[in-house]
Amino acid sequence: MKPTVTLNRREISIRNACVGLACWVLGSACGGPATGPEEQLRLWVSQGQAAAEAKDRRELVGMISSAYEDPRGNDLADIENMLRAYFFRQNSINLLTSIEEIRLYGDSAAEIDLTVGMAGKSDGAFGFRADAYKFRLELQRDDDEWQLISARWVELGEELH
Known about the structure:
Blueprint: H1 9-25, H2 37-53, H3 57-61, H4 76-89, E1 90-105, E2 109-122, E3 128-142, E4 145-155
Antiparallel strand pairs: 1-2, 2-3, 3-4
């Protein structure tokens, strides 16, 4: 028998946003130095989306800085636990991402604003869930690899601060 966990709407929304963040953003390493930083970041997002849809938690977690910390108090271990639980509950995950803006700060720091639509199928009562969020991701490049160091997010329609 599976244990039952009861979460309120706000807890579910926060959990889903954290999982969405980690799911599509945290992919495998970017291309080598032959491409510019903006192209590397676009590839990073695309690879993160593919890894999330494949439910490849290890690859996703590998792209988060060990110093990750977000304004909600989550760290790397928290994101990894959220991914583990979400991937376990979902039979399939589909993401639709739209990069709104990439801001580069020198050669080693960047922010990405994007919108993510998330849909998942599960064996739960309804079997399907869809959400959409706006994200602001902060990344740092170390040894030609971009890593997520912090993120902020809100449900689509709310103002991101």
